[in-house]
Every structure is written in C-alpha cells, then in structure tokens.
Structure to design on (342 residues):
C-alpha cells in the first residue's frame, strides 16, 4: 500500500496562457454571467435550463450537441436561458469506472491528467466559441476549478460532495451562481448548511496558499431526489417539497432564495424518459403558486444526441457512456413545451 507521486501538474496560469480565452468570449461571458445572475437575484423572470450529457465523454459529439442547442436557444431566448451542461468530471459511487474527461480524455485509454486538464479547458472554450453560450461544470475536485474559472458561468456541487468543507469554502470565493445538491440521503438541512457556508466569508488553504473569500450570495439549492436506507429512489420536486424548502429558506434568512430542480437521478427514479413529465409538473406548480414561481429558477436536464446509454466501448455516436440521457429530439420537444407554458 503506497502513495506514488506521478507528475507535478501545471498550475492554472500556465494552462490559461497555453489555452487562452479570446477577448470576444471574455466579453460574452460578462454578458452571460450578468443575465444569469439577474435571474437569481430576481431582476429577470427568464427560466434557466442547465442541459447536456451526464458526462462529456467526447469532444466532437459534445460540440455537435451544443451546436444544436444554439439553434434551440435562439427559438426560446425571450423566455429561457440555456446553460450547456459540460460535466468533465464524473463522480463514482465506488470509485470504479470512467471518471470523466479530466481523468481520461479518451475513455478507452489510461488516465492522463495533464492531457485531461488541457482537454476540458479546450472543450469549454470551443463550446463557447461555436455557440456563444458559456457553460456549466460540476466541481468534483475544488482545486480543478482554477483551470476553468475564466470560462464557466455556472457550477454544481454534487450530492456526494455537498458536505465537504473544502467544496463549501471554495464556493464562497466564486462570483457566479453555484448550485448545492441535496445529499443522496435526502436531508435538505445538509444542503442548506452548505448554502449558508458558501454565502459567508472564510480564510482557508487553497492550492498551497492562505486565501480569503467574501462569500457567494448566489449559492443556492439543487433538488435531485434521494435514496432511502433500502436503496429506493424518492423524488423531492413535488409541490409540498418546494413549499417546505421555501419555509426553510425563510427561517435561515439566506440570501436570494433559489432552487434548480434536477429532472433526472432519484427524481425520475433513474427513468430518464420521465424528464419531460417531471418538467411539466414543475412548470404547472410554478404557474399555480407565485411563491414557487419566485424560488424555482430553472431545471437541470440530462440530454445527449441519442437517448439512453451504452457501454464505454459501445461505439454509438452521441450516446452516454454513464447515466442514460434524453435524446436531443426529445429534449427539443421538451424545451419548446416548457417555453410555451412559462
């Protein structure tokens, strides 16, 4: 049993100099960041959709998918802000299996972290260049965010990471909206504590430095359903769930109460095709109750070119090699339906 140091990774400044963001994309990110922030602070009534594959496993297919989203965004831009979901790290329950593009730029080859760091940055930059839409990623490892902090417009903290102190403290130093998922066990107190921790200032160790943060008032909830002690999936997107979350937000006096609802995972009982139905219920509840409309800022949707999933060596272009996803055609109909009902 041992810990082997393989190679010292390049620091973020070196990677950013090697793979810079253009001035045009920098300006576009400023515009996008402001539009997204306006939703979370209540200045805009647009609806946010974080949409994309469970994991970004192939640059060509992901960029193809995002190019399709670009056309869709143009059709619904008066009501909806689409944030491409480009998740380049994949949490694994047991630590086994494909861990995402950061680890393996090619899923069929061995881990190569240096190549992975460059691959994920390049993917996010290319996505913004072809679509004009800056994207979202999951903060699986807090230190890795530094390689992408000039290109992302949204970050999610996963159900397995939300209790981690380093994640919470790192979020307190970000200046974009960050969603904190409820843990897999479903205790929303954990999620709300994470939001509170992220909204206040801290001093801590980050990448070998002592750093100070001012707090991130745009940290917010993501409801993704939960798993009970017997391994059964249960949703938490229903009317009563949201009303309870509103009450808990008010008791804690957290800034800018907001929630994004994940339409897959335990909320769909891992039945990806249920996502349009779940979205319909959420929109119906928003239209019925103004308090729910004020707090539910958007949805998180797992979608790729082809529906379902395949093995890592399945060979089907644009089909997930991790969790099953809704097809683009189904997603198109889902989003157009959402736009009609907002």
């Amino acid at each position: 049993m041992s810990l082997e140091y393989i190679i010292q990774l390049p620091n973020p400044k070196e990677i950013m100099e090697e793979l810079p963001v253009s001035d045009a994309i920098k300006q576009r990110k400023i515009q996008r960041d402001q539009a997204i922030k306006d939703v979370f602070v209540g200045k805009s009534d647009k609806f946010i959709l974080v949409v994309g594959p469970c994991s970004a496993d192939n640059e060509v297919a992901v960029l193809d998918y995002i190019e399709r989203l670009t056309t869709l965004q143009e059709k619904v831009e008066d009501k909806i802000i689409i944030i491409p979901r480009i998740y380049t790290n994949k949490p694994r329950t047991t630590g086994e299996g494909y861990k995402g593009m950061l680890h393996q730029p090619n899923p069929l080859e061995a881990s190569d972290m240096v190549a992975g760091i460059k691959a994920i940055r390049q993917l996010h930059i290319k996505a913004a260049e072809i679509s004009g839409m800056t994207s979202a990623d999951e903060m699986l490892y807090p230190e890795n965010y530094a390689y992408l902090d000039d290109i992302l417009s949204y970050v999610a903290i996963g159900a397995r990471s939300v209790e981690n102190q380093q994640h919470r403290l790192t979020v307190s130093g970000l200046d974009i909206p960050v969603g904190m998922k409820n843990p897999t066990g479903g205790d929303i107190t954990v999620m709300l504590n994470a939001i509170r921790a992220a909204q206040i200032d801290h001093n801590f160790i980050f990448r070998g430095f002592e750093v100070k943060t001012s707090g991130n008032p745009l940290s917010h909830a993501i409801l993704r359903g939960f798993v009970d002690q017997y391994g059964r999936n249960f949703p938490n997107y229903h009317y009563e769930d949201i009303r309870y979350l509103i009450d808990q937000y008010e008791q804690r006096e957290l800034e800018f109460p907001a929630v994004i609802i994940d339409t897959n995972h335990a909320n769909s009982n891992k039945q990806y095709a249920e996502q349009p139905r779940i979205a319909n219920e959420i929109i119906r509840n928003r239209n019925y109750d103004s308090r729910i409309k004020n707090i539910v800022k958007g949805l998180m949707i797992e979608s790729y070119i082809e529906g379902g999933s395949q093995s890592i060596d399945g060979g089907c272009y644009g089909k997930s090699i991790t969790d099953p996803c809704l097809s683009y055609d189904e997603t198109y109909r889902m989003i157009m339906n959402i736009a009609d009902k907002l």
